Please model this.
Amino acid sequence: MGSNVFVENEDLNYFAKQILLYIFANQYGLLLFAPLMMNEVLITISNIKTGENYLARSYPDDDYNNNGKIELYWTPVYKVFLQNDKEQKEWKALRFMPYWNDPKQPYSKYKTRKWVVSGLSSHIPKKIVTYYDPQYGVQNRYSPYAGGIQIKDSFLIHAGPQSLADIGWGAAGCVEIIGDFDKFKDDIRILSGIETNNSHDAIQMLVKSSKLYVEVQETTAPNIKPDKWHKEIPRRI
Model:
């Protein structure tokens, strides 16, 4: 039945046929040699601060002094750029976050068992994104948004707080986008030029076609000290 689809739709234009071919190939795990028409999209995690700061909690342990309250620390906000060869869109993100895994009572999921400022500070030159997980869910807080774009290893770009007022998020090195992460993904879709309304499909098409890129600009991580929190807040029950 699948092969008849292409025979019975001779009046479809070339691009529409390519879409059908992609859907067919994706369904049966086949590799297409004729790529879809799409733009390259570059995600740049910049070293440009917005001048704003965010109140973050340490993660995975958010009670450094073990008094039953959550300590919150100031961390800077950075610009993230999405662009093709003609257009650029700008977002805000959290690059560096306080990380605490008490070596006396460690979370076994995480190998680093001490206080560090998590995040990528070294330059990662423009590289092809090889993995996107449309089902990825944020680990440290509830988020209505799904999806994780891999920078390298376990370092992802994923949803973050919906605004600077949405305090108390944590991270273990990933880049967290501030705002509506569905809109962030949709901006990638728009820049790609792929004629689909589904941002997950568009990002997957870009990754499979080696058309999605990421670059991390070098910068110095902030000096966040474990005993220098801005304030403590009660733990929600």
User: Anything to note?
Assistant: The longest strand covers residues 41-57. The longest helix spans residues 14-28. The helical segments are 2-7, 14-28, 181-192, 199-208. Residues 93 and 177 are 4 Å apart (CA to CA).
